[in-house]
């Protein structure tokens, strides 16, 4: 039937999209871990250098690592959101056939809004626009 064909299609697409998203997510996790490790190592070396000479040479590198880390976190956040959209798609399919039970729960709205707005903060900052949650 058409409903079964649609369900199979949704499951297939979900699987085919989820696989590369998982690969991006794992690469992002690895990149984040490596950046954090590089930052720790840099701070240790900087501490040693400061004790010897009293000067710091890594501010540009630290800034670049910090910005790259922020981009990495944005990649991880967006891949997580995409996986959640796929989950919602599968749940919609279950709702159509009556196979999903919904449970009401409390939501921390401020936290939810901050997570929703996170991908927009970078582009807004580039345009000198401030996003405020009240």
TrEMBL record:
<dbReference type="InterPro" id="IPR036097">
    <property type="entry name" value="HisK_dim/P_sf"/>
</dbReference>
<protein>
    <recommendedName>
        <fullName>histidine kinase</fullName>
        <ecNumber>2.7.13.3</ecNumber>
    </recommendedName>
</protein>
<keyword id="KW-0418">Kinase</keyword>
<dbReference type="Pfam" id="PF00512">
    <property type="entry name" value="HisKA"/>
</dbReference>
<keyword id="KW-0808">Transferase</keyword>
<feature type="domain" description="Signal transduction histidine kinase dimerisation/phosphoacceptor">
    <location>
        <begin position="5"/>
        <end position="98"/>
    </location>
</feature>
<dbReference type="GO" id="GO:0000155">
    <property type="term" value="F:phosphorelay sensor kinase activity"/>
</dbReference>
<dbReference type="InterPro" id="IPR003661">
    <property type="entry name" value="HisK_dim/P_dom"/>
</dbReference>
